[in-house]
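#struct-help
A.M.: can someone run this one for me? Single chain, 142 residues.
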Amino acid sequence: MSGALTGDVAVGTELPGRTVHGVAVDHIAVMALVLQDSNPIHWDLDAVRSAGLGDREINQGGSTLAYIQADLVDWAGSRSAVRSLTARFSANVFAGDDVLVGGTVTAVTATDGGVLASCEVWADRTDGVRAITGTAEVFLRG
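D.P.: on it. Structure tokens below:
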């Protein structure tokens, strides 16, 4: 994708958004290994139940945040365009959940060679629970 055009970006512009269908148990387990995350809630259902967190494996928060980052990169056309990303984790994403991510431009500042778009971003489980809220600064070339 070539990225958003600066002339098309204004306060209120919606990011394209994306849906991750059925967060996979295998992906959660692989990410636990890659991240060296020893918390058993990512692969051990007994640990999930013992912690009172339900009966499905829990996706790593960083993996859910990566869905937002991927949406920003697709929109801007470059990983280097994402200048900052902050997040507040407010709910778990479980194996099998569908996750919808998106955002809205809240400010646009002209800079040399383009604009800096300030955005509110989020990740929702499709049952309506908001798992992540945050902000991002994205540079869009003119």
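A.M.: thanks! Strands lie at 18-20, 82-89, 99-111, 114-125, 130-141.
D.P.: also worth noting: The chain has one domain: 6-141.
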